[in-house]
Every structure is written in structure tokens, then in C-alpha cells.
Task: inverse folding
DNA sequence: TAGATTGTTAATCGATTAACAATC
DNA sequence: TAGATTGTTAATCGATTAACAATC
């Protein structure tokens, strides 16, 4: 598992671990719920209880965002929400391109929640001429041949792969060639990328494996 | 994080760790590719190289399936594929019901790969009367009111949640009430379930958080 | 003040890796 | 036989948890 090299940045800050980074969106989602009830402050204990974690873990995770809590009262809900959003880069939108306008690809093109996570899919690509030129959820589907050109012109860094398993590596290679450095891969294939490119695998097979095992 | 209690079974067998369990489908996918090239045997070293893991880790993971390798030659590709499928319960199909026939739900209803993972979504449910009665990718959409009844009658154990965030917990409660013991949750909400119920969270927000961080 | 809660340093626990003997 | 590879036992490493001092 190729650990991505730390993006330097503030050298004083310890780099956050992947598990911790993955928990921050969970806190955010819960805090927004809490905020809507009008609560002003919240403690780690409360968050931990709600999310089935330990208070110490929550406190350490929150510390990464450099927010300071107040003993006895905890953290300002509003400030904490903002701190997490800042830390995760949700304030500025990051543009992404999707390759593979099939079933799943189309669904993702219409998945509004992405915007809340600072991600905006601006267009799709497919090799199927029948799909090229169509519009899915307000987003245009381009010919795959134009991917490299468009990516470079718009300086897009994030690519989403929703093609079939057997062309996943090929599409990944094309993305890397085009300057993409972050890939969200929905195929069950482990794709190989050079150093400096980050891949997140959304592996439904793995999740299902755990579910099935639990019922047998 | 509530560790699920070990499903007893063969007491001699060490229970597999979650990370290991999640890697097995990756091996399977790669092995099928290898098998299609006609290769007879394969070594851990080869698998590890291909998937960016260490050979020792691969060997330990494979050991869970109780297959035996031969020094010098490695494992029979075919036998290994079968062993993993057996271990993951992919031989017999597990039926699932999906709640929330929106964008994402519909895409999942048409996602053929699920069958390869031993999962078959047999029907969908929605509270939107306009959707009730329609057919999506050959699967019927029922009124949510009928969920409990149908689940119990067919003794379904797996539920998939693709509703909006704010009704996720409600749907989860309903599933648990109906006898569902394994839930695949696509909402960004951490749902609370009683002991004995396994939840797998497909958290796109977390994956995106890692990607965005890598490019900033 | 007393007590709840934060923040930090030390201990634990589990997964991964290393070392090495066994074997085809 | 020699060497590659498996399988197992020990060492390492990193994340989580515990302990405790600081503070509002």
C-alpha cells in the first residue's frame, strides 16, 4: 500500500492518519445535525457517544483541525464545523471529470452530495459514440478522445473511473498522462499509478464480503 | 467502532481481520485475470507485486482460506479462486432488498457486478408513490410500507440504504425491526444499530476527503 | 471551589513486517 | 542438489486507549 508522501505544508503540524481523516466527515455530518437543533457547544464525550467512538480518539482527531476547545464547555459547534470544512478543503470547490457514463457513472453525475464535499463533477467522457453528445443530469458527455485535451486546458486534478473492470487500468493510465493526480476508482480493479498520484478505491466487493460473512 | 462478535464457526480457525477480509476480493479479481491468461500456478510474491502489498501479508491472508500452497510453485490459480469464493460465501447467492429508488438506488439495481460478489438485489422500496409500481432494471419498486412484511416472509437478511441522509436512521430502524442483520449504508450518516447487526458504510465523503487533501 | 472537559504524554493492542525453518 | 517459495513464530510499527495534568 503506497503511503502518499506528506504534502509538506505546515511542518509543525503532524500529518493526519488516514483513519482519522476518514472520520472527520462523519463528525461534520453529525455536527451539522446538532447545529440545526440550535445547540451552541458540544463535548468530545457527546460526539463519541453518538458515533460509537472513544472521547480521546475524537479529541485527537479534532486537534488536527487546530481548533481549541474550552474545558468544561467543549467546542463551539459552529466553529468546529468551519474548522473541519477548512481542514478538508470543502470551502473551495474542486473540479473533477468522470470517465464511463454507464449506470453508475450517470448516478454519480446526479449525486448532489458531492458538492457538499467540495467536489464538482463538471463533465463526463465515454467511448460509446451513442452516449457522446448527450447530457446527463445537466452534464455533457464527451468523446473519450478529448479527455486529455480538456483536462489539461482546465487543469483538472481529480478523475473518477466508472468504466468496466477490464478498461480500468487503461483509463487510469490516460488520466495520469493527462495530469490527473487524484483518482476515485469505482471498479473492483486495483489500478497501478506512479508515485504522486493518489487513488481511492470504492470497493463494494470488500464491503459486501464483510456483510455476507456476518450473516453466515 | 463496535467489533462484531466472532461468528463462532470453526473454533480452530483464527478469525480474519477486517483489513484482510477486504483484501480477499482484490486477490480474487486479480486471480481471475491471471486465470484467463492460462497460467496454472501463482506465487504470493507475484500477487504482492501486482497489488502493491508484501508477500508475507498475501500469504497470511490466503492462509485464512485454508488452501495449501506448494513450495517453489506457489498456489494453483484455479484452486485459489475457488478457495476465496468459498471463504467469502460467493457460491450461494445472498438476497438483498434496497430502500430508496433514487439516482443512486436505481444505479445499484442495475449494477451487475453485485452478482459476482454473491449478492442479488431482488426488489426496491420507496415512499414516493410515483415510483411505487414501476420497474427499474427489471426489479420492482414496492411501497415502503410493505418492507417489513416482505422481508420477513422471504427471510431476507441484507438491506441496502440509498435514501437521503435525514431518513437514513429511520430506514435503518425499520430494517432492524424487520429482521435485517447486515446493512450496506450509502448515506453519509453513521447509523446506530443494536449488537448483532453489521453495518458497512460506503462513505464517499471520506474517500473524497483523502483525494482533495492529496491535491492541496 | 469543585467538577467537567480539554490536551498531552505513556501504555496497550493489533496489524504488518521480518526472520527463519520446512519442503518441493 | 540448490533455490524458490510456503508457513510459522518473533519483532516492529502505528493507531487507539489509558492516565493524568491543566484549565475554565
Result:
Amino acid at each position: 500500500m503506497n503511503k502518499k508522501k506528506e504534502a509538506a505544508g505546515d511542518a509543525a503540524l503532524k500529518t493526519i492518519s488516514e483513519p482519522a481523516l476518514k472520520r472527520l466527515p462523519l463528525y461534520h455530518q453529525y455536527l451539522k445535525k446538532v447545529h440545526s437543533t440550535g445547540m451552541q457547544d458540544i463535548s468530545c464525550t457527546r460526539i463519541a457517544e453518538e458515533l460509537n467512538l472513544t472521547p480521546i480518539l475524537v479529541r485527537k482527531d479534532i486537534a488536527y483541525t487546530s481548533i481549541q476547545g474550552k474545558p468544561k464547555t467543549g467546542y463551539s459547534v459552529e466553529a468546529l464545523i468551519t474548522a473541519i470544512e477548512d481542514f478538508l478543503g470543502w470551502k473551495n470547490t474542486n473540479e473533477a471529470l468522470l470517465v464511463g457514463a454507464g449506470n453508475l457513472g450517470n448516478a454519480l453525475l446526479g449525486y448532489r452530495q458531492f458538492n457538499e464535499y467540495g467536489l464538482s463533477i463538471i463533465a463526463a467522457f465515454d467511448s460509446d459514440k451513442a452516449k457522446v453528445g448527450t447530457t446527463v443530469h445537466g452534464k455533457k458527455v464527451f468523446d473519450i478522445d478529448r479527455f486529455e485535451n480538456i483536462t489539461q486546458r482546465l487543469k483538472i486534478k481529480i478523475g473518477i473511473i466508472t468504466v468496466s473492470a477490464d478498461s480500468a487500468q487503461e483509463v487510469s493510465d490516460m488520466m495520469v498522462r493527462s495530469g490527473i493526480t487524484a483518482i476515485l476508482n469505482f471498479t473492483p480493479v486495483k489500478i497501478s499509478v506512479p508515485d504522486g498520484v493518489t487513488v481511492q478505491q470504492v470497493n463494494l466487493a470488500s464491503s459486501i464480503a464483510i456483510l455476507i460473512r456476518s450473516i453466515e
In short: The first strand of chain B starts at residue 41 and ends at 42.
